[in-house]
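User: I'm curious whether this sequence folds into something compact or stays loose and floppy. Could you predict its structure so I can see for myself?
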Amino acid sequence: MRSGTLAREAKISVDTLRHYERIGLLAAPPRTLGGYREYPAPALQRVILIQRALSLGFSLTELRDILRERDKGGAPCRRVAALARTRLAQLDAQMRELQTLRRHIVRILRGWEARLAKTPKGRQARLLEDLPHGTPRVRRPFPHRIQQ
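Assistant: Here's the prediction. I'll summarize afterward.
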């Protein structure tokens, strides 16, 4: 199947397909006489596998290494499970950070609501200037991931 068809069926862009080829996630397909890429049928399942793994937080580099090993007949399954355990630990940490941030915002909002109740309509309450130091920061879930 051609690039456009594969991209459409996988719900990604043609540029993403080319990127997967460049970094070694997807084998370069043969070309037609007209120079069009002609992907074999299993390419769709490979791209879907890549997309699903990315959604769990695997990086493109990790996937490339895992799939190369697998393509050579290796069994990277334990590494895959270890990486997933690491992602789970990161997610748990982020959830704790988010809960801390949520409690912090609730406290701030209580103070702001009281302040707004005393502020005449149309007057500035200067709420942001009253933000306390030490506001918790929340990391992105998978900062190493390349956005597509």
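Summary: Confidence is low (pLDDT under 50) at residues 144-148. The two ends are 22 Å apart (CA to CA).
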